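Checklist before submission:
- one chain only
- standard amino acids only
- sequence pasted in full

Submission:
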Amino acid sequence: MKIFSKFRDYYDCALSSFLESDVVIHRETKDNFIRTGEVEELGNFDAKWNYIFDGYYGKTYGHKNLYMIGFCGKWYFFTGDRYRDVNGVDPNTIEYHTFDEIVKNNREMSLFKSLPRWDRPDRNINYKNPNEVKFWNFDLFEKFGPVLFLDNYYCVSKFPYRSPHKQSTFNFVSWPCLGEYRFEKVMDPYTAMWELEHWFDFHAKPDDAIVPVGDDITRLQAYGFDKKTSFRKGKEKKC
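Returned file contents:
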């Protein structure tokens, strides 16, 4: 396996175990924007980790944003404190949570009567697990690649009052540096490399190749034939 990129990630240390692999990865971090109308909603789930903290007036309701990492068709969730002076999440504060933990936590916290109307129990239900929705666990990865990062997901229909020009798109980042998000907490380097190799092996099947447009030479080269030697006629012997 070979990886070409401008950064090193935590799982790169396992590359030596995949020397015989033919997989080549070009890892380029890129921002991809999708309009909210094109994203399949996840019910009332709005990527929040609810909690109670001791404020000036005693116990107060609050929440933390849940960041989402997509890796080879599966989504993982974590909370973390943002840096004050620079963009990014402080890795020392990162904690990963399962989807079941998120649903249980948010439903329990929504029982408090002081919650705003949009977070009352009758609205804070019917979450969809993105790992069970084709648009999330297949379509997005087919379009943008096997490693994704979503900074903020929110339920569009749940917050119709938000400014359209500010909240009209979701930003899916391709090939983020997972080491910055302590992804080793949920997947060790060797498993991560095996998952990537398996993903590329499965998604690069020759049977799924699209017939290229062009002349005969162009099509032959697209299928791996050499234009100088493939289908060359032998020299005829002169009588």
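Reviewer check: Confidence is low (pLDDT under 50) at residues 205-213, 230-234.
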